[in-house]
Amino acid sequence: MELVWLEDFIALAENGSFVRAADARHVTQPAFSRRIRSFESWIGVELFTRTPQGANLTEAGKHILPSVLDEVSRIYRIRSEAQELAGKAAKVLQFAATHSLSFTFFPRWIRAAERGAPIEAIRLHSDSMASCEQMLVHGQVQFLLCHRHPEVPPQLPHDQYISKKVGDDILVPLASPALALESEETSMPYLAYTEESGLGRIVRHRLQGKDEYLQLKPHFSSHLAAVLTSMALEGKGIAWLPKSLTEQEVLDGRLIRALDERWDIPLDINLTRPTAPINTSAETFWSSLNV
């Protein structure tokens, strides 16, 4: 049995698609499928049902998923502890943050956090929400910084990870002034987030069943809020964009509100870590945070 099989199993369980899971694991789909088959052969039962729509966990797969998540975290924690004791690991705080927060919120927040407890070294990994979650699960980082909404449950098991709220943000439906004028009597082209986006999960939850009412016509999608911002600035459609990312564009009048405030989506900015112990430097940093 190989660690990579456990990581593949988690990726497929979270993505529900061999294509998306293989992409998240940076491997070809045939190679990824072979590794899943190898893990199922080692376990002795099928862990997924394959359908044209994707892959769903069997009852056996659902049963072992929490244990696999815990085992992968434990293995990486053992490695980290061994390296720390051997003096091979520097006192580096490892963060995974979604792209929009990496560009805007993180630099200001970490400077303020350092005033409470000086930090020796920091490494920031910026990626999609799905990839950031994988980095935390696999022990590659100690902390995940991301947007949250109370009505959208996190993908990570609540008994294995804990969070602190460290900031606020808001998603605002924005468009260029020219598009807003042109679209008063017609449907509005919609710039959406893709499946791997954490903001996408939140927006989809808010708009569920309301697309037709708002006359939104899907036009373009990306997991990057910055890309959707650029498309909105070019007049390509309406997008729900973080206020923290678009304050200057709104101030300059290059983006304006496309819908009234009822359609704003308030957000928390959370820092998440495993409930299991992390290294001494990370524990000290976590304890220093004001909540």
CATH topology of the largest domain: D-Maltodextrin-Binding Protein, domain 2
Considering the protein shown, what is the CATH homologous superfamily of the largest domain? Periplasmic binding protein-like II
The first-level CATH class of the largest domain is given as Alpha Beta
**Biggest beta sheet attributes:** 7 strands, mixed
Descriptive overview:
By secondary structure, the chain is α/β, with parallel strands linked by helices. The chain has three domains: 3-75, Orthogonal Bundle (Arc Repressor Mutant, subunit A); 84-162 and 268-288, 3-Layer(aba) Sandwich (D-Maltodextrin-Binding Protein, domain 2), CATH 3.40.190.10; 169-267, D-Maltodextrin-Binding Protein, domain 2 (3-Layer(aba) Sandwich). 46% of the residues lie in helices and 25% in strands. The chain has helices at residues 3-15, 18-24, 29-43, 59-85, 99-103, 105-116, 129-137, 177-182, 198-207, 211-214, 225-233, 243-251, 280-288; strands at 48-51, 54-57, 92-98, 121-127, 143-148, 161-175, 188-193, 216-222, 239-242, 256-257, 265-274. The strands form three sheets. Strands 3, 4, 5, 6, 9, 10 and 11 form a seven-stranded mixed sheet that branches. A two-stranded antiparallel ribbon has the order 1-2. A two-stranded parallel sheet has the order 7-8. α1 crosses α2 and α1 (3-15) crosses α4 (59-85). The longest helix has 27 residues, at 59-85. It is globular and about 60 Å long.
